[in-house]
Amino acid sequence: MTTSDNATVLVTGGAGYIGSHVVLALRDQGRAVVVLDDLSTGRRSALPDGVPLVEGDVGDKALLADTFARHGIGTVMHFAGSIVVPDSVERPLAYYRNNTVKSHALVEACVEAGIGRFIFSSTAAVYGMPERLPIDEQTPTKPINPYGSSKLMTEWMLRDTAAAHDLRYVALRYFNVAGADPQGRSGQVSKVATHLIKIAAQTVTGQRAELQIFGDDYDTPDGTCVRDYIHVSDLADAHVAALRHLEAGGASEVMNCGYGRGYSVREVLAMVERVTGKPLPMRIGPRRAGDPPALVAGVERIGRTLDWTPRHADLETIVASALSWEERLVR
Questions:
Q1: What is the pLDDT of residues 44-72, one digit of tens each?
Q2: Domain containing 94 — which CATH number?
Q3: Which terminus of the chain is more exposed, N or C, with fewer CB under 10 A?
Q4: 241 and 111: one domain?
Q5: 254 in helix, strand or coil?
Q6: What is the pLDDT of residues 77-135, one digit of tens each?
Q7: Is residue 169 among the annotated active site residues?
Q8: Catalytic residue of the set 17, 95, 147, 174
Q9: Using CA of residue 13, residue 14, residue 16, residue 18, what is the dihedral sign?
């Protein structure tokens, strides 16, 4: 089977936070999309009408082969996996099974079916504790937790598979993803929230009594950790741009996804207070093990390689969209 530029895109984990926004971006471009999701963390309601859902395990090769053939899949975008860093430290084997072993089954099924385009949801956690900023793609990969290691192993798998088979891929290393679809069609729904802006939104809406800042004695301008936040809809657009790159015959690539601008925890929380006009209850707690002082993306490669222009690249927009979504959830 050969892939055509009009072939259907399979989105694994497409009922989850980032995956559902990518489904929306693909549909907005008139693309045919099928979602594969076991709904362990995703939601059927996150999918727009008319998008077929195959409910099942991304490691089920028989199901994959049937899905590829039944829907005429030409590209796979792979989001399914486990993503909570502390959880990965407590349950490393579960992360290697879910993120690496099942990715192996998916990549192997693609090779067997002749699917030659693959876009992978990777992470800045592959860099570990980088010594210099900004972090470009040449920065040594030294993950410090099983989550980052499991993602890096899948990148290596794709690299080696592409060298041996007719498969080209783009691995996108996300920095801190936040916000929600500007039209209110999807957003982050977490049983246990771990991301700062989501937690702040839960605090604003009364779901939490207060917010804890994990350490204020880092070597940063205000003592709190600095991160590069990217709006989830801009990240989704980057995946569509990666698809266009591969469809045009572009080479396999590994690219950072961020804006190249960092905000401290205090700056983010100050923006939440500015958007809401209310003080945010918070307290200072101890540092969390393994938190680097600052993570800021080097973004020259993605700007040079993909036809991608962020549309929501300011902190106020990210925060406002996250708060709007959270208010919808608690109504």
A1: 999 999 999 999 999 999 999 999 999 99
A2: 3.40.50.720
A3: C
A4: yes
A5: strand
A6: 999 999 888 889 999 999 999 999 999 999 999 999 999 999 999 999 999 999 999 99
A7: no
A8: 147
A9: positive
